[in-house]
Amino acid sequence: EDQDLKVRMLGQLFDMEGKKVASAIKAATQGQVVKSRVAAIRMLGKLKGDKEATDLLVKLIDDVDERIRVAAALTYLGG
Question: Against a cut of 0.70, is the pTM above it?
């Protein structure tokens, strides 16, 4: 699936390039596929010290989808 591939590529890029791909990870949290959004949310937790990522996690805690809310809350709490 395209979204799964995109998330895996972002994960690999993040492992290699770190914060240089932060904007792509943040954008992926807004996609249509919940599985991909959750994976991107989990990557946000690796962006230590990024205020925009933290603010995005807080915003995602109010998402309409429970899976997104749970992933955002756990990531925000460091779990």
Answer: yes
